């Protein structure tokens, strides 16, 4: 359903470094970078499908509107890898990795903040069957 998401960042370079470092175990990497017509970098991040689904650009509207972004992880180990990288980055951990049975029995996720205060999640779904 979701094609792409764009986030406004106070420091695009730092945000791109954070996302690619912390979400590396989910296959997130920088695909493209260019200068916007009005100035400032725009960075397109992709996952294993090599399609730029997460865009980072300069903050235009600095009102307080945190976003919740959930990134699919290929395994529980990848979620744990995101957690370790987020801890290494010194970011705020909202919830350590665990199963969230209130969502469904195989919902395994970690929640943390990005440098701009957005609520990020890495999640792996295991369905019985």
From TrEMBL:
Residues 1-125 form the VOC domain. Gene3D superfamilies: 2,3-Dihydroxybiphenyl 1,2-Dioxygenase, domain 1. GO terms for molecular function: dioxygenase activity; lyase activity. InterPro entries: Glyas_Bleomycin-R_OHBP_Dase, Glyas_Fos-R_dOase_dom, VOC_core. It comes from the Bacteria. Keywords: Dioxygenase, Lyase, Oxidoreductase. It holds the Pfam family Glyoxalase. PROSITE patterns: VOC. PANTHER family: GLYOXALASE FAMILY PROTEIN (AFU_ORTHOLOGUE AFUA_5G14830). This is Catechol 2,3-dioxygenase-like lactoylglutathione lyase family enzyme. It comes from Blastococcus colisei. The lineage of its organism: Bacteria, Bacillati, Actinomycetota, Actinomycetes, Geodermatophilales.
